[in-house]
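User: For a benchmark we're assembling, each entry needs the component sequences followed by a predicted structure for the full assembly. Here are entry 17's components. Please fill in the structure.
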Amino acid sequence: MKILSFDGTFDGLLTLVYESFRLKVFPEMIVSSGDQGVTLFDAPVFIPAEAEKAERVWKRIKERTSREGAYRLYMVFLSEQPDAPELIYQYIRHMVASSHNIETDFAHPVVVDVLNIHRKVMREAHRIQMFTRFQQTAANSYYASFAPIYNVLPVSIAHFRDRFADQEWVVYDLKRNFGFHHLNGEIERISFETLPASVLTGNLDDRFLHPDEKQFRKLWKNYYHSICIENRKNPKLHRQLLPKRFWQYLPEKQVEKG
Amino acid sequence: MISEKVFGKLKILAESAKYDVSCASSGTSRPNMPGGIGSAAAWGICHSFAEDGRCISLLKIMMSNHCIYDCAYCINRRSNDLPRTTFTPEELTGLTIGFYRRNFIEGLFLSSGVIRNRDYTMEQMIRVVKDLRVIHRFNGYVHMKVIPGASSALILEAGQWADRLSVNMEIPSENNLKLLAPEKNFESILKPIHTITDHILQSKEERRKSNHAPRFSPAGQSTQLIIGATNDNDRTILDLAGKLYQKRNLKRVYYSGFIPVNAYDSRLPALASPPLQREHRLYQADWLLRFYGFNVDELVSEKEPDLDLSLDPKTVYALRNPWLYPVDINKADYATLLRVPGIGQKSARMIVAARCHSRLNSAHLKKIGVVMKRARYFITCHEIGPPMSVQDLKPETVRQLILHGPKATEGVQLRLEF
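Assistant: Structure for entry 17:
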C-alpha cells in the first residue's frame, strides 16, 4: 500500500500533489506527519514542503477552475477532517484528468463531498462572525475568544478588520492556541504563553476589564431575556440555531456565579 | 458610567418592541468609512437567538412606549396600565455603539409609540439615527419605523439616514382595521408606503445617472401583518402581500401570529396559543411568490381560501395539478424544476449545472440535497423501478405517503433494487 505523508500545512499538501504527479506515484492513502497509528501498514514516504512547487500547483489549480473553486479547496483543508487531504488530492486529479471545468459536476462523488465540507466550514466561519463577543479592556482595546470546530479564524479576520477598523482588538482560538491582533489596519498572528482569559468561558480576568464592561454584559443579557416572547418559546429550534457548544462563550447564555 | 435608569428603560422598551417580527439586517452593503465605526454586510448577520427561536440581529427597541393611540391588538395601547418611559437620544446612541463595538448586534431597529403627535415622534426618532450617522459616524445597519401620518418631508429625511424604512399595516383589511383601531384608517397607512416607494424608485433612478446621488432607504421597505387577530383568510393576506411586492416594490412582508396581549378586549379572538403553523405556511407561500415564480391564485383560490396546515403550499399545489408531473430531471428547465416539491432554488441550480456533465439519477439528487421524501413522487430520472409518480399512485395516496411515510402504506411501496 502506497502511503504519502506531508507536514500538515497546505503548502505541504500541494507539494505532495506536485511530487506525486512528477514521480507518477499515486498514493492510496495520504497522512499528515502528526497523525499516529498509520504504521500498521507500510511506512509512509514523507514529502517535505517546498514553497515553489506548492505555488506551481496552486497556479495550475487556478487555471483550471474559478477563483472560488480554488479557494474552496483551501477551505476544505481548513476543516482539518482526517479525510480532507485525500479528498483534495482526488479533486485535483479529477480536475487534471478532465478537459473542462469540473466545478459544477455535482454527480461526481468527490465534487459533492468537497462542496459539502466547504459548506460546513463556511457555516462555521459565519458563526464566528455571529457569535464573537468582544470584551472591552481597561486599556480600551477589545478581546474575544472561542473554540471553533474547524480552523476558520484565518478566513474570518477580514470581516472584523473591515467592521472594527478603528478598534484595537484580539480574536483568539482557544482550541488551536493562536489568534490575531489588530491595530490600525495591521493584522498580526499571535500566540499567548499565559492566556489572559478563562479557557472555559473566554472571559477576561477581572483585572484586565474596562470599568463599564460588566455593566454592558449585564445590559445585553437583560435585553436578551426581555426580547423573548414567552408564548412562542421553542427550545428545539433555539438549540438548532444557537448550538450549545457556543453557550459558554456568550454573555447572554452564561450563568452568573454567586 | 451607565446609570441604573438605563437598565430599567432597556427592559421596558425592549419588551414593548418585541412583537415586531422583522429582524433582517440584509440588503445594504456599506464598507467601513475611514474614521467611522462599522460596516453593513449585504447578506445580514444574526448575532444571537432568543429562546423563542427568533434571530437577534438588531437592537430592537422603542424610543418611547407612551402612545396616544388605543389600538386593540397593541400591548402599548393608551388604556393599558404599563410602566411607561422614553429614551433620550444620548442613551440610545450610547447603547447602540456599546453593543455594536462588542459585536452583539448589526445595528439598530428603532420604533416608537406616538408621543404628542406624529411629526414630533418622527423628528425625535430621526434625531437618534442622524446622531448615530453624523456624530458617531456609525456605518452599521439602521431600520426605522415610519409613523403613519407623518409628513412626507420627515419621511424623506428618515430615508436618508436609515437603511430600511417600514410602516406596519398590522391589519390586512380595511373593515377590520376600523373595528380594532378606529382612530386609524387604511389611507393613512398606505400613504407613507406609497411615499417611500416613490422615493426609493426616484433615488435608484438618480443613482443610475450619478454615483454621488444620495441613497434613500437602500435596503428597501418592509411591513408586518398580524395573523389570526381578525377573520381575514389567507387569500386576503397573500393577495395584499402579492400586491405590495408587485406594485409597491416591498422587500419583505412579515407575518406575525397574533398573541393576545390584551385578553380583556372582546373584539379580539381568544386563542389558546399563537397560530404558529399558519404563520409558517404563510411564510412558505410568501417565498413561493417571491422566488419560485408562483402567483397567489395558484396557491389559494376562491374555493379554498386558506392554506393547508398539514402540508407545504408547493406540495399542495402539485397534488392539485398532478397532470404537470412527473418532471424529467434531466430535461426540465429551471422554472419547471422549481415547481417540484422538495427541490429548492439551490438544488434546482445545481441540477441544471450538473446535467452538462452527466445524466443524473436519484442517488445524485439525494447528495445534491433534494428532499427525496417529497420529490420522488413528482420526478423521473429514467431509472428502472416500480411506478411511483403522482400520476400512477393518485394524489390522495401520495398525500398519505408524504404525511405518514411509506411504512404506514406498506404494500403499495416497493423497494428500488438497482
